[in-house]
Write a structure and sequence with these properties.
Elements: E1 4-7, E2 10-11, H1 17-28, E3 33-41, E4 46-53, H2 55-72, E5 88-97, H3 101-119, E6 123-127, H4 138-142, H5 145-152, E7 174-178, E8 183-189, H6 194-204, E9 214-221, E10 226-233, H7 241-254, E11 259-265, H8 270-281, H9 292-302
Parallel strand pairs: 5-7, 6-7
Antiparallel strand pairs: 1-4, 1-5, 2-4, 2-5, 3-4, 8-10, 8-11, 9-10
Length: 303
């Protein structure tokens, strides 16, 4: 059985559909991988692509992605609500089937070496591929964003793991790594106050003393006249979706604000949604084996 790895590159374009299509098509033509999902956001001015494939297929597909993004995206002309460091902002690898975290770390390092060589692009490694503890957290690397990157990289402790010691003039830098599955989950509030969204984000994120496996920030949704608590959940088993939702809902009530909706960006493990269903339906003695699709998949695998 070939090993199967997931990659979820985030690139800094969410408004120009022709550019997004061109980038995705460059990846889609690569053998040995499948494009599973694409999510683009105009307010964030960012797209999230979900890929799955063999290590060799992903390596080639990601090289195609970097080439297309660096050709098409100029960060000196880019703006959006989401923090970003590069044209390809972050590219994580996640073990799915027949692959280990070590395999993903090796794939991340091989891609970093090749991308830096081909494009004179600084590369930082993060999470399980990080070269030191401070670089495990993506937010630490991204702090200062593209605009502050040149000054930041003058500090020897922020020398890249691969590539030149100064930013690419239009593509900035990139962050590549290996990690466990992550759920990108956003909760929209019935207010246009970014201050409230920021306060709620601070109350739930681990960095500020909140939930252990939650990263969060407030984001303005200009086209909707609302704000959003934008969340990355780094361990949905230990900090489940429903717990995050209930905490945001409770914090919002303190400010007289309602939750008007939520969204999942990209793909989500069914286990995360089943846990939410179990909680809200107050199911007794529920197990994942009671889900029809799970039982069918198990039967197919045993044939």
């Amino acid at each position: 059985m070939n090993s199967l790895i997931e990659s979820i590159p985030n690139f800094s374009e969410g408004r120009r559909q022709d550019v997004i299509d061109r980038i995705v098509e460059a990846v889609r033509k690569t053998p040995g991988l499948a494009v599973l999902d694409l999510s683009s956001d105009q307010n964030h001015n960012r797209s999230v692509l979900t890929l799955a494939g063999t290590p060799a297929g992903l390596h080639e597909g990601m090289l195609a992605l970097y080439a297309a993004c660096i050709e098409s995206i100029d960060l000196t002309r880019h703006s959006g609500e989401h923090p970003r460091l590069g044209a390809v902002d972050v590219a994580p690898f996640v073990p799915i089937r027949g692959a280990t975290m070590k395999d993903c770390v090796e794939l991340a390092r091989a891609l970093a070496a090749e991308v830096s060589k081909r494009h004179a692009l600084p590369v930082f490694l993060y999470e399980e591929a990080a070269s030191n503890e401070e670089r495990k957290n993506l937010a630490n690397i991204r702090k200062g964003e593209f605009e502050g990157l040149g000054e930041k990289m003058k500090d020897a402790k922020w020398a890249p793991d691969f590539g030149p010691s100064s930013p690419h003039p239009t593509a900035g830098a990139t962050v590549i790594g290996a990690r466990e599955p992550l759920v990108a989950y956003n909760i929209n509030l019935g207010t246009n106050s970014l201050e409230i969204a920021d306060k709620i984000s601070k109350s739930i994120r681990h960095l500020s003393g909140g939930l252990r496996f939650v990263k969060a920030m407030g984001v303005r949704l200009e086209d909707r006249g609302q704000v959003q608590v934008s969340i990355n959940m780094t361990n949905y088993r230990k900090t489940p979706l429903h717990r995050v939702f209930e905490m945001v809902k409770g914090e919002a009530e303190r400010y007289g604000v309602s939750v008007v909706g939520s969204e999942i960006v990209g793909l989500v493990p069914s286990e995360a949604l089943q846990a939410a269903a179990d909680f809200y339906l107050r199911l007794e003695n529920f197990t994942p084996e009671q889900v029809l699709e799970n039982r069918l998949a198990a039967a197919a695998a045993s044939e």
